[in-house]
Amino acid sequence: MLSRRVLLGSTTAALAAQAQAQAQPSYPERPIRLVCPYPAGGATDVLTRILADGMRERLGQPVVVENRSGAGGNIGVDAVAKSAPDGYVLGTAPVGNFIINPFLYRSMPYDPVRDLTPVSLAFEVPNVAVVSEKFVPARSMENFLSWARAKPGGVVYGTSGVGTSAHLCSELLFKRAGIACTHVPFRSAAQVIPAMLSGDVDFAIDNLASYAGIIQQGQMTALGMTTAERWPTMPQVPTMAEAGVPDFVVTAWSALIGPARLPMPVQDRLSAAVQSVAADPAIRQRFLVAGGQALATTPAGARERMDRERPMWKEMVELSGARME
After folding, report:
1. 94 and 147: one domain?
2. In a domain, 62, yes or no
3. What's the pTM value of the predicted model, to 2 decimals?
4. 192 plus 136 within the same structural domain
5. Residues in the chain, pLDDT under 50
6. Which residue positions does the secretion signal occupy (predicted)?
7. How far apart are the C-alpha atoms of 127 and 210, rounded to whole Å?
8. What is the per-residue pLDDT for 62?
9. Each residue of 283-317: pLDDT tens digit?
10. What's residue 17's pLDDT?
11. What is the CATH number of the domain that holds 140?
12. What pLDDT was estimated at residue 325?
């Protein structure tokens, strides 16, 4: 009798679980909102839209990009953190929003470890060191550093904001080289470029996606790329190590994120979609042309890279001396 009751109980539980699974809708059943925490037209926005196109094809639902910029990306990421954990509000969060900003800002509206779910790394962008063809005579990193040391008052460099990877890379370069420098932060690379072309700013080291076009037009010289190997679309540009600056491999990656407590089946579905996007040769080429590289990981793989790079970015923030309210 006991065995029969156990068997009946097990059968009933199995049928109930099956009925519940059948009752739950398959994900996704409606459009997904993908929050980009930076302005339209910038590197993160352009690459986010390529990712959204690929995900739409694989998920069978519209993936609508929404730009919510401000506070170094914190506003957009916070909107994702405070959304319902159902997979219909996602975001792309650059390394700054996971690792840099917690060391940079005195207070944060969200805790990146507690309030977010990293679903997969999505793409990364190298930084490229550039100078104006017209106003800076150097055509190599070695010549530029010599020119910068001799320049009265030091070098003026522009970035897309305080605490960005552009800012931290620039400070690291000039402090290592012992060169006096003045930081001029702008809202985006779109404002830095005209300042460089007019001679108001001497130097920038920022996302390739923002500078690829102006380099190809011949108005700026690329002195070095912050990658371990030469970039496929610009093989003529040396790596920073080849240019004489060792131990300078720094890329700005972005992850596909959701709020905390995102169900594992949803995470798995999204992670599989990103992996399929990254494996598509046509989409990989679109990323490369835009100045980025497609990435894909499991949720655990995304967390592993974040944990591994956290000490490096913390050191760079401390070296820069930057602090934000």
Report:
1. no
2. yes
3. 0.82
4. yes
5. 1-24
6. 1-21
7. 9
8. 98
9. 999 999 888 999 999 999 999 999 999 998 998 89
10. 39
11. 3.40.190.10
12. 79
Could you tell me which residues come within 8 angstroms of residue 259 by beta carbon, excluding any fewer than 6 positions away?
80, 81, 82, 83, 84, 85, 89, 115, 116, 117
- Residue for token pair 């089946």: 265
Residue type, 40: A
Which residue range(s) make up the domain with 295? 32-124+252-320
Please give the structure tokens belonging to residue 99.
């690792």
* Amino acid code (one letter) for 251: T
Q: Is residue 305 part of a domain?
A: yes
Q: CB of 73 within 8 A of CB of 241?
A: no
Within this chain, do residues 144 and 202 fall inside the same structural domain, yes or no? Answer: yes
Q: Tokens in use for 199?
A: 């001679």
Q: Would you say how long the chain is, in residues?
A: 325
User: Shortest CA distance to 267 belongs to which of 51, 56, 86, 119?
Assistant: 119
Cα dihedral 16, 19, 23, 25 sign: positive
Residue 97 in contact with residue 77, Cβ under 8 Å? yes
Per-residue pLDDT, 25: 59
Written as six digits, the tokens of 60 are 């069978």
Backbone angles phi, psi at 170, to 5 degrees: -65, -45
Assigned token pair, 152 = 């009265």
Quick: pLDDT tens for 147-165.
999 999 999 999 988 888 8
